[in-house]
Amino acid sequence: MNHVVSNPLRLSLLVLIILLFAACSSTPAPTNSSFDYVASVKLNEADSKTAIEAAYGGKAFIFDKEAGFAMLGFSKEAAELSTLTTETNIDRFSSPVNAAGFSAWAGGFSAWAGGFSAWAGGWSAWAGGTPVPAPVENNNIWNQINLPQAHAITRNFGSGVTVAVIDTGVDVNHSVFSGRLAPSSMWRDYVDNDNLPQEGSSSGQGYGHGTAVAGLILQVAPKATILPLRVLDSDGQGDLDDVILAVLYAVNSGAKVINLSLGATDYSWSLVLAIQYARANGVYVVASSGNFGSVNSTTYPAQNAYWDQVHPFLISAGSVDNNNNLSSFTSYGSGLTINAPAEKNYSTFPGNQIGYFKGTSFAAPLVSGALALGYADAPAAAKTQLFDALTKGGYSSGDYWDRNSGKYSQGSIGEGVLNVANFLRSIPGWTEPSTSKYKTSTSLFPNGGFESALSSGWWLNSASRSTVRQSGSYGLQVNPWGSAGIWLTGLKPNTTYTLVGWGKTTNADEPVQIGVSDYGGINFNQNFWFSDYTSKAVTFKTGSTYTSASIYVSTLNATGYVDNIVLIEDK
User: Fold this and answer.
1) For residue 71, what are the contacts with CB-CB under 8 A and spacing of at least 6?
2) Domains and CATH numbers, the chain
3) pLDDT digit string (tens) for 286-332?
4) What are the catalytic residues?
């Protein structure tokens, strides 16, 4: 991780090089255990803590029948005598140098144009009417993940959802966190064995990491509640037992989303058991994928995302650049769920400051914030169905360049790039509020489909009306190598529009595309890769003299189906 900090009193810049953490019943309170090794045992109803300790040796610092397992700590000597398979504990999570390493930011920096002061207004300046949160330097990444559109259609801004930040702690005195932290009686510091999870020493390589993560979550979900749980020291190192204790505590404390911007290079069955407990309680865990910059280098627990009976509640996050190409440092491949921009994300920094940050640690909180938005807005029956909406509502991964194979590859790097507005629209039962900042200006398929006749104005090339539909009676079928489209007139110059549609393909290797052209900007499209209907969004802004645009649907060597296409205009 790299970050740069602005001090509003001096308007000077400090360059810090921080390597990303390789992606990081009642639960016991923090303890200074310092166990060399740990091991976990699944529990039966008849088991007792005393019997477990007598059978395996070690000290059972977790004995939770509701979670279904006990966790025992051992000295090196005791571990060698135990019949259990033990795992190393001390500094299991750390900040190793990645394959390429990070160097200081090149080129130097000047003060921001106008200067930056502390976020004295805090979170309240973000919620309500402002579609793009402060600081404005994040506008590009917010537009990239369609956050302004999401804030225009969300009802609750994450209100009522607690997000546990299991990290280096946070600066609990930062003005942005005023009124946004859980009650102090719920805070925990598993490093210093107290209840004050304040960031550690400012000389540490990990200093400010958790503060930045929490700030990014609140920029996406400004009315969410942050539960700070410190498990990593100021150098970004932490013990396995502390992370597991924090996960169990977060679940039992009512968190609905857990952010783990940390990781380890080796598998931990004990941590899997803790995440299985989160899954059993409907709690989403978001883990950063790691910074090794190569395929199949995803760290743990992110790499567990599709295995070990934790799917779909464990979600792993990688990083992309501003063109939706994989970042040079991101780990990808096995286990990766979704990607988000994390090459220069501005966020909170200790001392009432702001800074910018780089690494997959800062992709994860964007996903956690999106889940908080979705959880707060989702109908009750859909709160445990957010995974499909998150991944199928993301931008297609077909545009990614696979550095190892030297070609574009759809299947090896995850399910796409985070699209927050499309995620909300893809949640089962979710409806757009009538008070939305956006309005549906054009329904391109009347009455939810081609109900009575082909919509006037559509041209067809090997395409036709079909009874294969997302809703209503009819949709549009586009045969292999076919296309269809409509020329829209009466648009407004310099106006942002979002094209939303549903589609599916008969061939997972050959998507159906929906796109826009001839509007005064670069041609842009989205791909439907799935055999079930999913929604996609294409956002574009008309040029200064443009009052029209071309909307098209096309396929390659597959039959594609689309339905319920609407155009949403920024009021």
Assistant:
1) 38, 39, 40, 41, 60, 61, 62, 241, 244, 270
2) 37-88 (no CATH), 100-426 (3.40.50.200), 438-570 (2.60.120.260)
3) 999 998 888 888 899 999 998 999 999 999 999 998 878 888 888 88
4) 167, 209, 361
